[in-house]
Design brief:
The structure holds two protein chains of two kinds. By secondary structure, chain A is mostly helical. Chain A has 16 helices and two strands. Chain B is α/β, with parallel strands linked by helices. Chain B contains 17 helices and 24 strands. At the A-B interface, α1, α2, α11 and α12 of A face α2, β8, α4, α6 and α17 of B. Chain B: It holds the Pfam family ABC_tran. Chain B: This is Sugar ABC transporter ATP-binding protein. Chain B: Keywords: ATP-binding, Cell membrane, Membrane, Nucleotide-binding, Repeat, Sugar transport, Translocase, Transport. Chain B: InterPro entries: AAA+_ATPase (IPR003593), ABC_carbohydrate_import_ATPase (IPR050107), ABC_transporter-like_ATP-bd (IPR003439), ABC_transporter-like_CS (IPR017871), P-loop_NTPase (IPR027417).
Chain lengths: 354, 504
């Protein structure tokens, strides 16, 4: 068999190999970087398109939607769920789920309020309280992670557990009297703005950037895709799946801890109810952004954009004077439609649905 | 230093009730391609699992580069440079090619938990270059065709044990079973390249392949190595005898039973177009076996499905015995006397949850019915008749399809169509894929018999050899169009290379 009889075959089936250059130097010039970014999945084009559509429709429906004041409100409302969604993304990429966010936010919101200057305790750790809050969140996340990996409890049950633990901790710390924050440093993050945008939104932006770096550059981030894509193969390749999965829950918990501190800064007091409503918003955002609940697909930026879509819709419906109850139903419908749309391509493989 | 890279001595493995391996000794020399051939159940996959570290032998020793070894698991074996390329591919679809090649084996390409992408991609590109693959390390793996993913899989195997000063041992588990003929040629080339840098074990149950690529062959039967031969010492009939334990009665492809096709045209296809194929024309005669050959996406599967009414056509005509036909659905085609055995036997052809009997009478219940009522006694009799006629190994017609071997399942699926007394054209999509040699020979003989009875067979062959040897005529397809046509008769078969040239 001569070489040239066979050589053309390598080009005849599927055009995807066309990108290979003779010298595989990895980082070329600026333009190709943009083109490459558009080609890979790291840019959630469908979600961006959906966001643009939502913004355009609401701008047409109500001229107040795109005013500076409303953009500020959107940024303010998105900051906390975006932070939660970044942590959640890694858990979902691995094919697990974290339902505990509201409980962890409640607990860490109380922790933050009681550790900064307040009207109930004499503690005053200043912004160090935020670090403690993140650590408490990570600890709760680790409990969930250990329950999943060592006790082999399905993640939705394990995190319902830590949700309740978080609520219990929060109630205990609350003790019937809300601690009002007197630390003006903490409050200023929610009240003051940079470039007209609340500082909390910049916190969220930094978290997204860190999340993106972790996702693309670190072993933890890449193995989230590996584990979600095929846990058996990951294990056969000698990857310590349990360790990375536990780490993902801890990371989600840490994000929830930060979110708790942000919630306290925003509301000015520690409260059990500080976490209310975030579970739906976070999971809906992650899913609408294009991260599949089955794992292995999507990413941090997807989720952040998904959250922006959800917040824009809520905000836009309120501006149009739609009743909040109807608005809630509309959000539910949108989630169902979005999941249908993302799974549409895979519908043949999903012939059996239970 | 001895010339032996990897060996097992006197290895046995017992499972509940069966002795899967019985005192087996095999050695693999440096830069050698060793074939491991045997029917399903002969023990070759058990041996492979021991070689790759998945199983531990009950007794006997395993020696790698002169040192006795005991692998704890497959990751352990891979660390020492013994890598398996699985039949079911083990690549992750959602990550890049470079990541897959070095998955769990990144070493200094990940520093303090942070990826050094340029280094990882450079190394992956070197591995791909070494086997002449054009795939980019950045490509997301799911964007590649099966054949290209297999090249990545081989590159991954080459990357195992990188850094140790021994060349790797690469175990290929039936690597050709789902490849198209031209891709198989490409794989042969790669194995030839691999040989310079590695020792290769090649497992197969296709005899021609083993003779083509291997320097030396171990033939297994009933858990034992029954013979060891070099490539030059052995030919197909002897290989068959050693593997199956009986002589090849006729030639493997029952070529002596090939009769000339009849003059009357059974099916005339002219200018037929549809999704995946364009302007296809040919005549299919009564009593003819017409082979369609082509690489993946050549359009031959699409054409076959369209002829059976399972896909729409956009232009052109089909006549059956002189009458123009246009099938809107498979049911319509079945009524006109066309039978179709799909490529995915497990998912399309056979209902594994139902009995042999039910599977057989599925498409032609009218043969076992009186009016609207299914007559069980007739069904039983018909089914038993076919079970004995086709030598189907099953305790009874009531047995569940799932408990039959692949070969016997295929015979049941064939019987399903043979029940039809009006059967005129039978379309067979890779009917022998995954079957044992013995079962294949049975299927070949059956196809001959059908042709002799005047049935026209359109065969989408599983390999070049099969397609050429079985045919009265070979039609090649490329990019959805007919690219060549060859007459074929015993003793006057077209050349493999000529046929291949028209396919790629």
């Amino acid at each position: 068999m001569s070489q040239h009889t066979v050589a053309p075959q390598s080009r005849s089936d599927g055009g995807s190999a066309a990108g290979r250059t003779e010298t595989p130097t990895p980082d070329a010039g600026g333009l190709s970087v943009v083109r490459r970014a558009l080609r890979v999945e790291s840019v959630p084009l469908p979600a961006l398109g959906a966001l643009a559509l939502v913004v355009v429709l609401f701008s047409i429906a109500n001229s107040r939607f795109l005013t500076m004041a409303n953009v500020r409100a959107l940024a303010d409302q998105s900051a906390i769920p975006v932070v939660l969604a970044v942590g959640m993304t890694f858990v979902i990429l691995m094919g697990s789920i974290d339902l505990s966010v509201e409980g962890v936010v409640a607990a860490t919101s109380m922790v933050t309020a009681l550790l900064v200057a307040n009207n109930r305790t004499h503690e005053n750790f200043g912004l160090f309280a935020v670090v403690v809050s993140i650590a408490v969140g990570a600890a709760l996340g680790s409990i969930a992670g250990f329950s999943v990996t060592r006790l082999r409890i399905p993640s939705f049950l394990a995190t319902i557990g830590t949700w309740q633990i978080g609520l219990g901790v929060a109630q205990t710390l609350f003790a019937g009297r809300p601690p009002v924050v007197q630390d003006q440093d903490l409050r200023s993050w929610a009240l003051k703005t940079w470039l007209g945008v609340p500082r909390l939104a910049f916190v969220a932006l930094v978290v997204v950037l860190i999340g993106l770096w972790v996702q693309n550059m670190t072993r933890f981030g890449r193995y989230a895709y590996v584990i979600g894509g095929g846990e058996d193969i990951a294990r056969l390749s000698g990857i310590n799946v349990k360790r990375f999965r536990t780490l993902a829950f801890a990371a989600a918990g840490a994000c929830a801890g930060l979110a708790g501190a942000m919630a306290t800064a925003r509301s000015g007091q520690g409260a059990v109810a500080n976490g209310n409503g975030y579970l739906f918003l976070t999971i809906a955002g992650v899913v609408i952004g294009g991260t599949l609940l089955t794992g292995g697909r999507g990413g941090v930026v997807h989720s952040a954009i998904g959250v922006l879509i959800m917040v824009s819709i809520t905000n836009g419906l309120i501006l149009m004077g739609v009743s909040p109850y109807i608005s809630q139903s509309v959000q539910g419908v949108i989630v169902v439609l979005a999941v249908t749309a993302t799974l549409w391509r895979h519908r043949e493989r999903l012939r059996v649905v239970k | 230093m001895s010339d032996v890279a990897y060996s097992v001595q006197g290895v046995s493995k017992q499972f509940v009730g069966t002795r899967a391996l019985d005192d087996v000794s095999v050695e693999i020399r440096r830069h050698e391609v060793v074939g491991l051939i045997g029917e399903n159940g002969a023990g070759k996959s058990t041996l492979l699992k021991i070689l790759s570290g998945i199983y531990q032998p009950d007794s006997g020793t395993v020696t790698l580069h002169g040192q006795p070894v005991k692998f704890r698991n497959i990751a352990h074996a891979m660390k020492q440079g013994v890598a398996m390329v699985f039949q079911e591919q083990s690549l992750l679809p959602n990550i890049s090619v470079a990541e897959n090649i070095y998955l769990g084996n990144e070493r200094d390409a990940v520093k303090q938990g942070v990826f050094r992408w340029p280094l990882l991609r450079k190394r992956a590109a070197e591995k791909l270059d070494a086997i002449g693959s054009q795939v980019s390390p950045r490509t997301r793996t799911e964007q590649l065709s099966f054949a290209k993913r297999q090249m990545v899989e081989i590159a991954k195997a080459m990357a195992t044990g990188e850094g140790s000063h021994h060349d790797p041992v690469i175990l290929l588990d039936e690597p050709t079973s789902v490849l198209e003929a031209a891709e198989i040629q490409r794989l042969y080339e790669v194995i030839h390249e691999l040989k310079k840098r590695a020792s290769v074990v090649f497992v197969s149950h296709r005899m021609e392949e083993v003779l083509e690529v291997c320097d030396r062959v171990y033939i297994m039967r009933d858990g034992k190595v029954v013979a060891e031969r070099t490539k030059d010492e052995i030919d197909v009939p002897e290989l068959f005898r050693l593997m199956v334990g009986r002589d090849l009665s006729d030639s493997y492809y029952a070529e002596n039973e090939q009769e000339a096709r009849r003059d009357d045209v059974r099916m005339r296809v002219s200018g037929l177009s549809g999704r995946g194929f364009t302007d296809v024309s040919f005549d299919l005669h009564a009593g003819e076996v017409l082979t369609l050959l082509g690489v993946q996406d050549s359009g031959r599967e699409d054409l076959a499905r369209a002829l059976f009414g399972a896909a729409a056509t956009t232009a052109g005509t089909v006549t059956l015995d002189g009458k123009a036909v246009r099938f809107r659905s498979p049911a319509h085609a079945v009524k006109a006397g066309i039978g179709y055995i799909p490529g995915e036997r497990k998912t399309e052809g056979a209902l594994l949850g139902m009995s042999v009997e039910e599977n057989m009478t599925l498409a032609h219940t009218d043969q076992v019915m009186k009016g609207p009522v299914l007559v069980h006694s007739v069904e039983r009799k018909t089914v038993d008749e076919w079970i004995s006629k086709l030598r189907i190994k099953t305790p009874s017609g009531k047995t569940s399809m799932a408990s039959l071997s692949g070969g016997n399942q295929q015979k049941v699926v064939l019987a399903k169509w043979l029940l039809d007394p009006n059967l005129r054209v039978l379309i067979l999509d890779t009917p022998t894929r995954g079957l044992d040699i013995g079962a294949k020979a049975d299927v070949y003989a059956l196809v001959r018999q059908l042709a002799r009875n005047g049935i026209s067979v359109l065969l989408l062959a599983d390999s070049l050899e099969e397609g050429i040897a079985m045919s009265h005529r070979v039609i090649t397809m490329k990019d959805g169009r007919v690219s060549g046509e060859f007459d074929s008769a015993p003793g006057a078969r077209p050349e493999r290379t000529d046929v291949l040239e028209r396919m790629v």
